[in-house]
Structure formats: structure tokens, C-alpha cells
Amino acid sequence: MRAVKYYPPESRRYLQQNLQCIYCGNTTAFFIDLKLRHQVIIQNDSSILVEPSKTTEKVFHSIAKNMDMVLDNENEVINCANCRNPGVDRQERLLDYCWQVGCPGCDVCGSYIDKEDLIETCTECLRENKGKIGEEDCAYQCMYYDNGLDAVRRHYEVTLEELKRDAGY
Length: 169
Prior knowledge:
169 residues, alpha+beta, two-stranded antiparallel ribbon, elongated
């Protein structure tokens, strides 16, 4: 079985109308799960030549023209060729969502708050809660960010224990 490659934000292609997998960060290869009819022609030397029919060309044109509707469809027609997950969306929509919710940083957008801001925010939270904060609290019940600062801490390789020790707890 092939290992799934993770694409960090700095190695991604940022193009207008580009797709991105929300699981592995792939921005280069995707596959479409469709059943299409093809015209098969058998030549004299018994080789088989497969040519797309007019219907196939129309389907591909329709998909390209209505990509947002295809991505919003619950049938999950487009999948990532790297990790095989159906979590594919337009790159600009993913980035817009992160910016709209005030994302402190995640693997999807790859834009993280400064390390000093992270330490200051976490230290303030630890002081308010007298050091009684666990990993689950950080990930799911962060007072400052809806999705927590767990991804930012992993990015800067800062552990909760280090933050507690530096804050005196």
C-alpha cells in the first residue's frame, strides 16, 4: 500500500480556481468518479482504440463549467488522488473560510499567528484558569479561538506542559 504524502502549505500551488484536499493539502491531482460511455473501435490489427464520445465531452465541459455545484454536491464526485478522501474544495473558498472565522492558523490555510502571540494568549488563559487546563480544553474549549490553538502549538512545536512550566504551574 502506498503511503499518503502530506503537502505542507509552502509546497502547495496557489492558483486561481485551484482545488485543494482538506486532509493532505494536495493541490495537484484529483480524480472524478463517473461512469461514462465510450466508443470502442476495433482495427484490422486487432488493437482496440477508445475514443470519448460526444456525450463524454459534454459531461466534462459541464463539470468544468459548474465546478462549484459539483463540489457542493453530497455525492462526492471529485476525490483526492493522493489520500482518496472526498474532502476537496476550491482553494480560495477554504482560505476565505479561515480568514472569515479568524483562524489563528491551521494546516488548511497555513497562515499562523506569531509564536509570541500564541505564548501570550496561552499564558493569559492559564493564569485565568489557575493552570487547570488540559489538552482537551485547549483543543475544544479555547476561550480565544473556536477551533483552539492546538494546530498552532503543533506548528511551533510548543507543548502545553512547556507553557504551564513557563507560566509557573
